[in-house]
Write a structure and sequence with these properties.
Strand content: under 5%
Distance between the termini: 117 Å
Shape: rod-shaped
Largest sheet: none
Structural class: mainly alpha
């Protein structure tokens, strides 16, 4: 501490101690912010992956439904043509 000063030495000591406290806790606060940002980014990634998987399942179900419908319609058309050929003969 610098002696003598125009300000009370207790005041300069208090200001110095509060500045040191801020500088001392800055790395911990920075790491806390980094961990929080990383956790938020990973949570968003997991949510996006879950949403994409759900949309893929919906698309796959729609494609399966259309494929089965097409198979049934082809079978029905073939039966209809066979029946028409049998009855027409």
């Amino acid at each position: 501490m610098a002696f003598p000063t125009a300000v009370n030495s207790q005041i300069t000591d208090s200001v110095t101690q509060s500045n040191l406290q801020v500088l001392g806790t800055a790395p911990a606060v920075a790491m806390g912010n980094l961990y929080q940002a990383t956790a938020q980014a990973l949570a968003n990634a997991a949510h996006n992956a879950t949403n994409a998987q759900q949309q893929m399942y919906v698309t796959a179900q729609a494609a399966t439904t259309m494929g089965v419908s097409l198979l049934y319609s082809l079978d029905t058309a073939a039966d209809g043509m066979a029946t028409k050929a049998i009855l027409g003969a």
